[in-house]
Design a protein that fits this description.
mainly beta, Immunoglobulin-like, 5 domains, elongated
Length: about 600
């Protein structure tokens, strides 16, 4: 049987019944379905449209070695074949194959009232041509018709549609099979039989190292007279080789029956893979050896090095409801590149996108049809993916005089995307404008799409409290000598208030600019009064009845850390002391100094 094109086709011969003069006549169909799958397996079945219980047996006639024949048995169906009144053996319909099988025919014969047989993809037509599907075939011709038991008139029609990989035939991997031997083919009307094909003295399949020398031997018989009459006077050349690797002409002319043999060597390809050694012909006047530029019919299979079987896996993204946003991404390994891709929606690329919901299948074939893998992928039309949300960075904010702060609008600062919803909703808890105390507060942001899928992230808001600082308590303004030759200390007091008990300050946390630490143990005493007024203002009121924390820093270290020695004389600048309470709440305290000396 000839090799079939590696696609999945359902050939349905639909036998439509049209009413004649009887009132009980009705329109029915008998569908003869022939299925071809990528692994070479073939199946057939038949159904009667108005009678789902009708039993119609369709089997392959294995006794026919001249081609593919299907037997249709209606014995248990309660119906009879169309054209039953015509002589047994009558061809009730002949139609041309679609362009994929150009030049081939289908012939449907009547054997008896309950039996038919169909020659599939036949080289010759035995009945009147019904036309080429889909334009010329389908209206029927009345004198081909016959009557069912109820008087309905039956005439044939054909339809060809794509079919998916059946569940029991889907696969993810494939290793090529050895070509048949002997092998018979035709070229320009000559029948050519190749026999005893051998690689390296063995069978017609062998595994070799890259770049090694391979011996090949085979016999051939050319029958010039018993094949078709196509081009009897043509000069014919025959070649064998590997596509894009090499080609050798082994004999030519063929104006008479010829037999012979080939014993030769060639160099194996250097790239690991499966390589079919194929034959082809040409109508050139003389041999023109060169590379095989296309795949021909295979004589032998050469496996170079260790090659993984052709394997196909897939990942997919479902489509949004009512949309076409699905995609399928294939990963192909093994076999021999380049690969071809035959998708059920007509696409020929490796990956496809813009897909609505549905089941898609693809036939992946490696070079020279060495291996074919068929897989099915289902794209659901649903949204089950939550939005992707990226929160802004954690934030630090300064509390007001009451040691409170308000939550900012963090949703406005978040990045949110979704596969289906262009504008997912964002909510935060606590909500924007909520009053929060000093310390850390976790704000949760939640993005929700229109289907209800949600995802969240957190932002930590750290509220720092302001406390009062009095540099050089009892002095106003606060002069600082920026002469680096000095080794003095500068006193500062963190002032206690009704909100701050200085005993709760974590002494080891106190610093200026993160590097300058106190140089002397602190003391607790009442030395100052908080100033209320414009920035960098001060007072010299002394104690207010509330204990303060007095600390001392190296004047030189403070000057260097803040670059005060680089400032102009009499410049007024703020100095900030940082730290935390024993509870972990952070604070800042700020007062100003006046530069009274410099390097100049």
């Amino acid at each position: 049987m000839k090799a079939k094109r590696r696609t999945r086709l359902i050939l349905a011969a639909l036998l439509a019944v049209g009413s004649i003069s009887t009132v009980q006549a009705k329109n029915v169909n008998i569908s003869i379905i022939e299925s071809y799958f990528p692994n070479g397996k073939e199946m057939a079945s038949a159904v009667w449209s108005s009678d789902a219980a009708a039993v119609i047996n369709v089997t392959r006639d294995l006794s026919r070695t001249d081609g593919e024949v299907w037997l249709i048995d209606l014995t248990g169906s309660g119906h009879q074949v169309p054209g039953a009144p015509w002589p047994f053996g009558f061809t009730v319909a002949t139609w041309q194959e679609p362009p994929a099988h150009a030049g081939m025919w289908n012939n449907l014969y009547i054997d008896d009232p309950l039996h038919m047989h169909m020659e599939s993809e036949w080289p010759t037509a035995t009945g009147q041509n019904m036309g080429v599907y889909p334009n010329g075939f389908g209206n029927g011709v009345s004198y081909y018709a016959g009557n069912d038991f109820n008087g309905d008139l039956v005439f044939p029609k054909v339809v060809e549609v794509a079919a998916p990989c059946p569940a029991d035939e889907s696969s993810s991997g494939c290793s090529p099979v050895s070509p048949p031997s002997p092998f018979v083919t035709t070229y320009a009307g000559r029948c050519v039989t190749y026999n005893n094909v051998s690689l390296n003295g063995g069978g017609n399949t062998d595994t070799v190292a890259p770049g090694s020398v391979v011996s090949i031997a085979f016999g051939y018989d050319v029958d010039y007279t018993s094949c078709t009459t196509y081009c009897p006077s043509c000069i014919v050349q025959l070649y064998y080789g590997i596509r894009d690797e090499f080609s050798e002409c082994f004999t030519g002319n063929f104006l008479q029956d010829t037999s012979g043999s080939v014993n030769d060597t060639f160099t194996a390809p250097v790239a690991p893979g499966y390589y079919y050694i194929t034959q082809r012909g040409s109508l050139q006047y003389e041999c023109v050896p060169g590379n095989h530029s296309a795949c021909g019919e295979a004589l032998a299979l050469l496996i170079v090095d260790s090659v993984e079987p052709l394997a196909v896996t897939s990942t997919s993204i479902d489509s949004c409801p009512g949309g076409s946003t699905g995609s399928i991404d294939l990963t192909v390994t093994g076999g021999k590149a380049p690969y071809t891709f035959d998708w059920s929606n007509g696409e020929t690329t490796e990956d496809i996108s813009g897909l609505p919901g549905g089941t898609y299948w693809v036939v992946v074939t490696d070079q020279c049809d060495a291996c074919t893998v068929c897989i099915s992928v289902t794209i659901e039309e649903e949204d089950i993916a939550a939005p992707a949300i990226t929160c802004p960075q954690d934030k630090t904010i300064l509390a007001d005089d009451n040691w409170e702060a308000t939550v900012p609008d963090l949703c406005a600062l978040a990045t949110i995307t979704d596969n289906c919803d262009p504008a997912p909703a964002c909510a935060q808890n606590p909500s924007a404008g909520t009053t929060i105390p000093e310390g850390d507060t976790i704000v949760t942001l939640t993005a929700t799409d229109e289907t209800g899928n949600a995802s969240s992230c957190d932002v930590t808001i750290t509220v720092i409290v302001p406390v009062d600082l009095d540099i050089k308590p009892g002095s106003c303004p606060n002069p600082i000598n920026t002469n680096l030759r000095g080794k003095g200390r500068i006193a500062m007091a963190i002032l206690g208030t009704n909100l701050l008990d200085v005993n709760e300050i974590e002494i080891n946390s106190i610093n200026i600019a993160g590097t300058v630490l106190p140089v002397k143990a602190p003391s607790i005493e009442d030395v100052g009064t908080p100033y209320e007024g414009e920035e960098c203002g001060c007072n010299a009121l002394g104690g207010d009845g509330t204990n303060d924390l007095v600390i001392h820093f190296s004047t030189r270290e403070v000057v260097l850390a803040l670059d005060l020695h680089m400032l102009e004389f009499k410049a007024i600048v703020p100095i900030t002391v940082e730290g935390s309470l024993q509870s972990g709440v952070k604070f800042i305290a700020t007062d100003c100094v006046k530069v009274i000396a410099s390097l100049d």
